[in-house]
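Note to self: the last two entries modelled the partners one at a time, which told us nothing about the interface. This time every component goes in together.
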Amino acid sequence: MSVHGLFLYNAAALIVIGIFGILTRKNIIKILLAINILQTGVNLLLVAVGWRPEGIAPIITEQTSGMVQFVDPLPQAMVLTAIVIAFGTTALGLIIAINYFKTHGSLETPSFLYGHMKSDEDEVVQ
Amino acid sequence: MNRGTWMKIRAQVLPSIFVLLILCAGSLLVYRALTDEGEGVKVMGAPIPERISSRFITKSVNQRDNVSVEFGERGYEEGSANLVTSVVVNYRAFDTLLEVIVLFASAAGVALLAAPRRRPRYRESSVIVRNVVPIVNMLVFMTGAVIILRGHLSPGGGFAGGAVIASGFILLSLAFRHTIRGRLLIVLESVMGLGILGVGLLGIYYDGYFLSNFLPTGRVGSFFSSGTVLILYLLIGVKVLSEIAGISLSFLRGEEEKA
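The predicted structure of the combined assembly is written out below.
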């Protein structure tokens, strides 16, 4: 497996882990962590798509000017955008989680299919 | 197996299995799209001349074949040496403007939802913290300023440098009691946002396009080489700085003014 393939499979694994976490976890903090893992996977996928064999960082310097093979700069710019948006959504989600804890006394979201089931193994958040 | 155990399995294990099956199907579809051997330009491995970024690399949106930008030359459409910066702040500057607006919306939402809460009992920091934090902060602020100002020459830029300087403000507000006021951050942020809009309107005045690069683009690689990119990245850096510091202060102490 080449380095390129390694990055692609890593991105796919991160995206799958993120979606799985969003759909199955009940703790709000864990859902936010899963969203962040998903965003990291998407960023990694974008940068990996922009890679090319023997490409170098897209910055013109004295050594690398002229007909040098740059990697694609457009996905990197999009990742820069995506990171900032990820910061904003995470901050908003965390403040909503704080308000949810204040009103409900718990960070667990109830399952609308089976109701909220208490057991000894359930984490009791104080 | 009693009823409680069965309910628990049904509530926890079965959804996981279902989600895993859906994800497997989705992964297969994406894998097929990435490795498709049909006609047309492939997602993976398309050569750079067939991508839109070849226009950004040759620094000309108009079709100019086989133009290579040399270090130290002048006369291009856009002169910053860092190609990612020239995409973010020049070719896709409108995208960046809206991104900054999204960040502003997020900061406003956090400030709105941060419930007023009682000020925690103040405990003075230790001597080590009080003496070390100013020294560390000096280095942090200098590093952030260099990252912001050299965003068009080296990796970095307004977003990264603004985050670095904001971390310095977070450190200050953790170590000392009265450091920075929330109102000042809001004023700073508003002025910087209006500044970005003003630069865009000046582009209309000089060139006829919003956010157009109307200043002369100097030699590639020198400090004053990118026209409005330097000004825009400075404004974006201070704006991101004040937004991140404001969000962090909201988390640290709630809304003290309202309480």
